[in-house]
Write a structure and sequence with these properties.
This protein is mostly helical.
């Protein structure tokens, strides 16, 4: 029984070897198959390089938004939250409604706690602006830092990919394109 299995394995090996030899003969005699074989070898090599590049990028790099976000203190988180809230239509509409209600209460109703030039409203907005402006500027500075980090990371990734592609030079032209002088690009 074991002997029959060994004979079958040897026969399979001989058949595979014969098939490989026949394929290699065909590749050597047919320029299109030779071209396809070279392209396949280059594609495998490029896949290896791209896989290695991806491994490097996955292992060594953090997402562009993650690195600057690490270690944010309370002031930075508050600045980002205020910046996010100030940059919405809900805030603009809400603030406009607040001003309209303040003026209506002080002009029409019996509760006149802030008479016509609305000094308290002006004071409230001045105080609010004194705190809002630095918070917005801090959030903008953080956004610029995030953008710079993202740009640096993309530049590093692009450099790795370009180095990988430079290893292989220009792609091989198909045999028919070489014979007719065409570049193979339509």
């Amino acid at each position: 029984m074991q002997e029959a299995e060994q004979l079958r394995q040897a026969e399979l090996k001989r058949a595979r070897d014969a098939a490989r030899r026949r394929i290699l003969e065909l590749i050597e005699t047919d320029p299109v198959l030779a071209y396809a074989q070279r392209q396949l070898a280059m594609a495998r090599a490029r896949d290896d390089v791209l896989a290695e590049t991806q491994r490097i990028l996955d292992g060594g790099a953090e997402p562009p938004s993650a690195a600057p976000a690490r270690g944010r203190h309370l002031g930075q988180r508050l600045a980002d939250a205020f910046h996010t809230a100030f940059a919405t239509w809900w805030f603009v509409v809400g603030q406009s409604v607040f001003i309209a209600v303040w003026i209506l209460i002080n002009v029409i109703t019996w509760a006149h706690f802030d008479h016509y030039p609305f000094l308290f409203l002006n004071l409230a907005f001045s105080i609010w602006a004194a705190y809002a402006a630095p918070l917005i500027l801090m959030a903008d500075a953080r956004a610029a830092d995030r953008d710079q980090h993202r740009e640096d990371e993309q530049s590093r990734q692009l450099a790795l990919i370009l180095r990988a592609l430079e290893r292989y030079g220009p792609p091989i032209q198909p045999p028919l394109a070489r014979e007719t002088g065409e570049s193979g690009q339509g």
